[in-house]
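re: the backbone from monday

yeah here it is again, tokenized this time
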């Protein structure tokens, strides 16, 4: 990922779709050596802060949150069967999925077809706080708790430590990972 990102860093406009396709091909190739029948897959959320803007690309069920003006907003949508069904049939449609299949991914890195990345650009403001995190956090820590932990700490490391500790205490041991970014000035 870093080598591919460095290649594009000379350009002002990153081609996130091409980056994600290249990474996905590499993961799919590795997956065939690990398990020829099923392969492997992963999620990927990438943030680039450039020219006072957040450029975001996302595939899977990891997420990105923006805390601004004491309000937490989830910027990404999880690519799961449940969300896909709701997107196609309306948010109020009855969804009858088992707990086992509800969170099955509909898009991931390493899948056979090139994954379609969700792309987003947002202007940044001084005092914005960003959290990119795995579902090992979001399944165990409620959004109001994430907002409080982002608001109550002076630096990103302490904020992230508190978020990961809370997720781990509640059972998110194997996949409670994240990155916190505090924007001081733009």
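seq for it, each position gets an aa:
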């Amino acid at each position: 990922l870093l080598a591919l990102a460095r290649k594009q860093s000379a350009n002002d406009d990153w081609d996130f779709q091409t980056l994600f396709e290249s990474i996905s091909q590499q993961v799919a190739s590795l997956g065939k050596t690990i398990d020829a029948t099923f392969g492997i897959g992963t999620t990927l959320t990438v943030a680039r802060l450039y020219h006072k803007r957040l450029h975001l690309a996302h595939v899977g069920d990891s997420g990105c949150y923006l805390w601004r003006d004491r309000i937490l907003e989830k910027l990404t949508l999880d690519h799961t069967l449940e969300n896909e069904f709701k997107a196609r049939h309306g948010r109020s449609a009855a969804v009858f999925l088992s707990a086992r299949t509800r969170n099955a991914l509909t898009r991931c890195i390493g899948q056979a077809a090139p994954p379609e990345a969700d792309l987003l650009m947002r202007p940044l403001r001084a005092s914005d706080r960003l959290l990119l995190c795995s579902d090992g956090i979001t399944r165990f820590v409620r959004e109001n708790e994430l907002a409080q932990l982002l608001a109550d700490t002076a630096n990103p490391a302490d904020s992230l430590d508190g978020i990961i500790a809370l997720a781990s205490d509640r059972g998110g041991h194997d996949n409670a990972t994240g990155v916190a970014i505090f924007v001081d000035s733009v």
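The mean pLDDT is 89. Helices lie at 2-8, 16-34, 81-89, 99-102, 135-138, 143-151, 156-169.
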